[in-house]
């Protein structure tokens, strides 16, 4: 009888482990697998003339981001993990009057493993909010390092909350869509003269 009870316990444990593995496989998750500098440059078109000009810089900082599928998990895979490359582009242009002191461009990239995340809205959040928030500190450090190597005064970019920017932009888009729908409904309700 003890052998029977032990066998039942082992079977129950195996069934629970199988159920947990299946639940784990169906959960959404992403993991940063690798960080790397994809492309970087520092252009100094008006050096050394800018070194002889009083340092009153005008900075312009621009951002761009992309998300590219690298490898799609096979449909028959029990756990579907897709690989995506996220790239955050940071471009800093520094002008002194009409002279360009430097243009620093950093393309900081990361390789992400995504499990069960494949809907367009979910990928958009990853591309425009989550990945840039993860990659920005590394891009920020690279910009600072490049500017320092060009022998310019230190540049420390302010932190950026890409998730907040994403939420604000989406709220504005939804508000604009509601206003357009309301305007269209009001137009349809006007009596024909």
Overview of the molecule:
This protein has about 190 residues and is an alpha+beta fold. It has one domain: Bacterial Protein-export protein SecB (Roll). The protein is about 45% helix and about 30% strand. The protein has three helices and four strands, in the order H-E-E-E-E-H-H. The chain has a four-stranded antiparallel beta sheet. Strand 3 and strand 4 form a beta hairpin. Helix 2 crosses helix 3. The longest helix is centred in the C-terminal third of the chain and has 30 residues. The termini are far apart. The model has no long low-confidence stretch (mean pLDDT about 85).
Write the layout of secondary structure elements.
Layout: H1 2-26, E1 29-43, E2 58-71, E3 81-96, E4 99-115, H2 120-149, H3 162-189
Antiparallel strand pairs: 1-4, 2-3, 3-4
Helix pairs in contact: 2-3
Helix content: 40-55%
Question: Overall mean pLDDT score?
Answer: 86
The tally of strands reads 4
The helix/strand series, from N terminus to C terminus, equals HEEEEHH
Task: Output the CATH class name.
Answer: Alpha Beta
Helix and strand content put the structural class at alpha+beta
β-sheet strand percentage: 25-35%
Q: Which sequence of strands runs across the widest sheet? A: 1-4-3-2
Helix count from the secondary structure assignment: 3
How far apart the termini lie comes to 91 Å
For CATH, the homologous superfamily is named as SecB-like
How many structurally independent domains?
Answer: 1
Radius of gyration: 26 Å
- Approximate shape: flat
The CATH topology turns out to be Bacterial Protein-export protein SecB
CATH architecture: Roll
- Low-pLDDT parts are none
